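A student in our group prepared the protein record below, which I am reviewing. Here is the record exactly as it was handed to me.
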Amino acid sequence: MKKDIHPDYREVLFHDISADFKVVTKSTIEAKETIEHEGKTLPYVKVDISSASHPFYTGTQRVLDTEGRVDKFNKKYARK
């Protein structure tokens, strides 16, 4: 590999501020802040949504009645 062309791949703390959920994972993201977490100083990134707060993963996602809308459209614009 060529030297000095690859981003720094390191552990980063992502904090979902809406659910107060923190996860440490590896990333190349540039972080402006650092934080002390479990004895380590890690780059710190705030996120608005994660698996802890996303409706799909929390089970609060609403299912749309697409069949009813399609039938209504076909009924309205059906050729006679």
